[in-house]
Specification:
The protein has 434 residues and is of the alpha+beta class. The protein has helices at residues 13-40, 54-59, 63-94, 100-108, 115-125, 134-144, 298-323, 327-335, 340-368, 372-377, 383-386, 389-397, 404-433; strands at residues 165-167, 173-175, 184-189, 213-219, 243-248, 251-257, 263-266, 275-278. A hairpin with a 5-residue loop joins β1 (165-167) and β2.
């Protein structure tokens, strides 16, 4: 351009005016908080005494803080891999099922729910009582298909010599007198809690038919008093679902289950004397639910909620990568005789590796910053066992600890952990755009 000629277009300095608002927001919202947090982490809880690196030393010496670091290591080792693998499986499935759009919508829907709301949902899902927690309700329903889920752990014979039943030598309860077909056997028990019998039916005396051995298992207590011991009175409750065995010469010859009215019946027994027995399994406590929110399972339970939220995000990204794979390479491998598993393992996954890496690194960043799910799902009694760095940072700074020096040190420590993965993602994005 000749000297003195005017430059075409706006001057370069004009670009600075357009960049200035973004730079100001970046400085106020990001740069200044980081610099101030570094400064604040060098002072004590009140901010008046310079303590140097003492707050950083506390991170690696305090037992509760070490627990948070251990939990974050578990999160980083498990959660990103699970989300990536499940997202890959879902993405592959969407290419092979008819209702792919509806499937994607259902899987991606948790992303529309805030992490706080997701935590509330899974707090209810993980309730231990099967009548409140969905997870244990499902388990109870499944186990109920393979056996009775009704147990009477408090039931016992009446403590006197007049009772027709007594504790068995190997556990359970046995009738004191042997019985023959055609006789009725009474198996009265006491000690059952009223709440257990809230929906129980009224007990009924059994009437054995010819050649049948029948009887009744019931709660031998009349509410409000009255009634005769060892007799089925009109208002006494039946013990339904009890397993009853007919034993002869030490061997179980027949098994029956008490009905809603407490009656049971053995048919087709050979003549002879039988000992009627209630085995110990009747007195084992019913399934009370897995303690998902207990100290042992709380971290895996929260990771499950995290996977539920982010699996749809991973599926969408990986599905976009699958759509970009050249179909010629897949068809050529199939023509050469490769199985679907070989095509998936040796062609699909290698071609998807850039997308899988982006998803994996993004999930690592998200797991390092996780806060909402742990805060909402974990009860207060087990939060020390479920604690993570982000939650500990809030707890010691604003949640009652009032130690913003240590909280700032934890914030900088978390930034140092997240920064390398952010750099990996940025470099990957730049490489892809070149």
């Amino acid at each position: 351009m000749p000297a003195g000629a005017s430059r075409l277009g706006p001057p370069p300095t004009l670009a600075l005016w357009f960049l200035l608002p973004g730079a100001l927001v970046l400085g106020v919202m990001v740069i200044y908080p980081i610099i101030y947090s570094i400064y604040r982490s060098l002072y004590d809880a009140g901010g008046g005494t310079f303590v140097g690196a003492d707050n950083y030393a506390t991170i690696f010496s305090d037992s509760s803080t070490l627990t948070t670091i251990r939990n974050n290591l578990i999160w980083v080792a498990v959660a990103p891999a699970l989300v990536t693998v499940i997202g890959l499986v879902f993405a592959v499935l969407t290419e092979r099922i008819r209702w792919a759009t509806a499937f994607k919508l259902v899987v991606f829907m948790p992303m529309a729910v805030s992490l706080m709301a997701s935590g509330v949902i899974f707090r209810l899902v993980y309730e231990q009582a099967p009548d409140r927690g969905v997870a244990n309700a499902v388990i109870t329903s499944v186990t109920g298909l393979f056996g009775s889920d009704q147990g009477y752990p408090d039931a016992r014979p009446r403590e006197n010599d007049q009772s027709p039943v007594a504790p068995g030598q190997g556990g359970g309860v046995v009738a004191k007198q042997p019985a023959r077909p055609g006789q009725a056997v009474l198996l009265p028990l006491v000690g059952v809690k009223p709440a257990t019998l809230a929906s129980a039916s009224t007990a009924k005396a059994a009437q054995p038919g010819p050649g049948d051995l029948a009887g009744t298992v019931w709660f031998d207590f009349t509410q409000g008093g009255g009634g005769a011991p060892n007799q089925v009175d009109g208002t006494e409750k039946a013990l339904a679902g009890m397993t009853v065995e007919a034993v002869q010469n030490g061997a179980v010859k027949a098994t029956a289950t008490s009905g809603a009215d407490g009656t049971f019946r053995f048919t087709g027994l050979a003549p002879g004397d039988y000992q009627v027995r209630l085995p110990q399994s009747n007195f084992d406590a019913a399934f009370g639910g897995i303690p998902w929110l207990g100290p042992t399972l709380i971290t895996p339970a929260i990771i499950g909620a995290f996977v539920w939220v982010w699996a749809g995000f991973a599926m969408v990204l990986i599905a976009a990568g699958l759509a970009a794979i050249p179909r010629d390479a897949l068809e050529a491998a199939r023509i050469d005789g490769a199985t679907e598993w070989q095509v998936f393992r040796k062609i699909t996954v290698p071609l998807l590796s850039p997308v899988l890496l982006v998803v994996f690194v993004t999930m690592i960043i998200n797991t390092l910053k996780v806060f909402d799910l742990v805060f909402v799902i974990a009860p207060g009694s087990v939060q020390p066992q479920a604690n993570v760095i982000a939650l500990e940072m809030w707890r010691v700074s604003f949640g009652g600890g009032s130690n913003q020096g240590l909280g700032s040190a934890l914030a900088i420590f978390l930034l140092v952990l997240v920064l390398p993965f952010m750099i990996i993602n940025i470099r990957r994005f730049r490489r892809d755009n070149q």
